[in-house]
Known about the structure:
The protein is mainly beta. It contains one helix and 20 strands.
Amino acid sequence: MVKVYEIDGVRPVVHPTAYVHPTAVLVGDVIVGPRCYVGPLASLRGDFGRLILEEGANVQDTCVMHGFPEDDTVVEVDGHIGHGAVLHGCRVGRNAMVGMNAVVMDKAVVGAESIVGAMAFVKAGMAIPPRSLVLGAPARVVREVTDEEIKWKSFGTKQYHDLNVRSMQTLREVEALTEVEPDRRRIEFGADAHRTKT
Length: 198
C-alpha cells in the first residue's frame, strides 16, 4: 500500500499507470502522472508548494522533492532523477537527467535534454540551457551534451519505464529465503524478458 497523506484537505494524485513504491511517502499537493516511477524511500512532500511528475518521469530511491509555498517543483516528460537527488522548487526539463546525490535549488531550471552530474549543486535561480552537461559544486555548464549521451540517457529512462511495468506486475512483499537456492536465477533483461505472458 502506497503511503499517501492528505494535508489541509489536499490529497496526492497518482495516475493508475504510475508505480509508487510502498515505502515512498507522498504528502499533500503531489501529482504523479502516467507511466511514472517513484522508487523506494523517496519523499515527495507537497505540504508547501505543488510537486508535479509529468508522463514517464522517474524519481529514484531516497530522492527528496519539496518547495516553497505557491511554487511548483516539476519534473517534465521523461525526466530522470537519480538516487538520492534533492529537488527544491525547481524545474527539470523534458528528457533531462539529474545525477545521483545532486541538488537542484529554488527557481533553477534544468533545460531539456541536459545532464546534471552526480553530486552537483545547482544554485537557486540558475538557468541551464537545453542539452548542457553541468558538473560541480557550485554547478557550471562544461559543454553541450552529445547525441550519444542523449541516447544513453534515453535508454536509461526507458529501463525505468520498463521497471514501472515490472514492478506493477511482479513486485510483492515476501519472506526472505534463508539460503541461496541451487541454480539461482538472475533478473532477465532484453526485449521479451518481461512481457506479460498470455
